[in-house]
Design a protein that fits this description.
By secondary structure, the chain is mainly alpha-helical. It has helices at 9-30, 32-35, 37-44, 48-76, 78-98, 102-119, 122-130, 136-144, 146-160, 166-187, 224-252, 258-270, 276-305, 310-338, 343-372, 374-387. Helix 1 (9-30) runs antiparallel to helix 6 and helix 8 (136-144) crosses helix 14. The longest helix has 30 residues, at 276-305.
């Protein structure tokens, strides 16, 4: 069989390494906070507003890591950035395990939250270097759904290790993060990476030859819809991950198994996000964008309308899981189309806008929840997701032209033309 159908063993190792790195840094280090929020509130005496501030602080760490990645990845290469993220996840979650006061807890959560910022963007360079162009969308989608697999593991763990045993769960998180970091250190190629000039990489959108990105190159007009979507995606996701469990336990009681089962169901459904690359290839960015944000809006609204209803909670999990996981893959592929000449740096710019949403979301909506209740906060968040449907993604660039325009409208090409190489 040809490389268009299967990946070689080293390529599968890279995909698995990326999936594991994203799984521990997002599924555990970043989103584990929301899963164990009732335990944190009870043990450390935290208000809803304080919870929102801690959540926003962890996302500040995420953005700081992104800024550093944008500066350092070209010099040290993606492997060093991924290893740094793994170390942050391991140490941060280890601190949470032994925390005895809110200050230590916050320090651990912020350090753990930084890990996803170190890891996510560099994999654009890894995929660009190792994976054939015909496979990149699918591999990027596979790596992005590592979050879902992390959530699938965390949910059942929370079912057995909660209340007074929550520290044991975070110890498991930390040990798993260490193992994933070692695996990535062994698998990923070392050294810096510069994308080979080709088509869109050689020219600006105006058709002039260019030797490399200049100041403000990431502010091109066709990136605006991408950035608006990224802000919304970050805000909606941050609020849902931070407060979903709190909303459910507030209605069903902290002793109920509904919340861990909800988390597990969300992760299981989220594994379908691995099909995002196929959906983008077949249906295009625009249709995929509409489907995902419609699903996110409905999922969030269900928790605002009926957080105590088992059918509503289950439907929210089944919708949110795949839509959110697919959303990260959508942004990765969309960013790759928008910045083919510098994939990692361009994706870092995109994730910075995700970071703006994640920082704004928990603190702002946490304050709204304190005054008007979590239901109102979720309904306001659903409105943000629905408003994003007004944004229309541009078409993929044609790699054979310097104009950045597609030959075939909103539907990407198949085979080797699926991603600009």
């Amino acid at each position: 069989m040809t490389t268009t159908r299967i990946m070689s063993r080293p390529q599968w190792h890279v995909g698995l390494a990326g999936l594991s790195a994203v799984g521990v840094t997002f599924g555990f280090a970043r989103y584990g906070y929301g899963l164990y929020l009732p335990e944190f509130r009870r043990e450390f005496g935290l208000s809803v507003a304080t919870v929102g501030l801690i959540g926003s602080a962890s996302y500040v760490g995420f953005v700081v890591a992104l800024l550093l990645v944008g500066t350092l990845v070209a010099r040290f290469g993606p492997r060093s950035m991924v290893i740094t993220g793994g170390v942050c996840a391991t140490v941060g979650m280890g601190l949470v395990t032994v925390a005895r006061d809110p200050a230590a807890l916050t320090t651990g959560l912020v350090l753990a939250g930084m890990s996803s910022g170190w890891v996510w963007a560099p994999y654009s360079d890894v995929v660009d270097r190792v994976i054939p162009s015909s496979r990149r969308e699918r591999v990027m989608a596979m790596i992005a759904t590592g979050t879902a697999f992390g959530v699938v593991v965390a949910g059942p763990l929370a079912l057995f290790l909660r209340h007074s045993h929550w520290r044991h769960a975070w110890l498991v998180f930390a040990v798993t993060a260490l193992a994933a970091t070692v695996y990535n250190a062994l698998v990923l190629p070392g050294g810096s990476h510069r994308a080979a000039p080709h088509g869109a990489r050689e020219r600006s959108e105006g058709g002039r030859a260019r030797s490399g990105p200049g100041r403000g190159w990431f502010l091109r007009r066709r990136a605006v819809p991408l950035y608006l979507t990224a802000v919304s995606y970050g805000l909606v996701g941050a609020v849902y991950w931070a407060y979903a469990i709190e909303a459910i336990t507030g209605e069903t009681g902290s002793g109920s198994a509904t919340a861990p089962l909800f988390w597990t169901l969300m992760g299981l459904a989220g594994t379908a996000g691995a099909l995002t690359g196929h959906a983008i290839t077949r249906y295009g960015l625009r249709r995929t964008h509409v489907w995902l944000f419609t699903g996110l809006a409905v999922a969030v609204a269900l928790l605002g309308l009926a957080p105590g209803s088992l059918p509503a909670v289950a439907a929210s999990a089944v919708l949110y899981g795949p839509c959110f996981m697919a959303g990260s893959a959508l942004l990765a592929v969309w960013s790759y189309y928008t910045f083919p000449e510098q994939p990692s740096t361009g994706f870092t710019a995109t994730i910075l806008f995700v970071g703006l949403g994640t920082i704004t979301g928990p603190a702002t909506l946490g304050a709204l929840a304190d005054s008007h209740g979590l239901r109102s906060a979720f309904l306001a968040t659903a409105t943000v997701a629905a408003t994003t449907l007004l944004v229309r993604p541009g078409s993929r660039p044609d790699p054979s032209s310097g104009t950045g325009q597609s030959r075939n409208g909103s539907r990407p090409g198949r085979g080797k033309r699926a991603v600009a190489s």
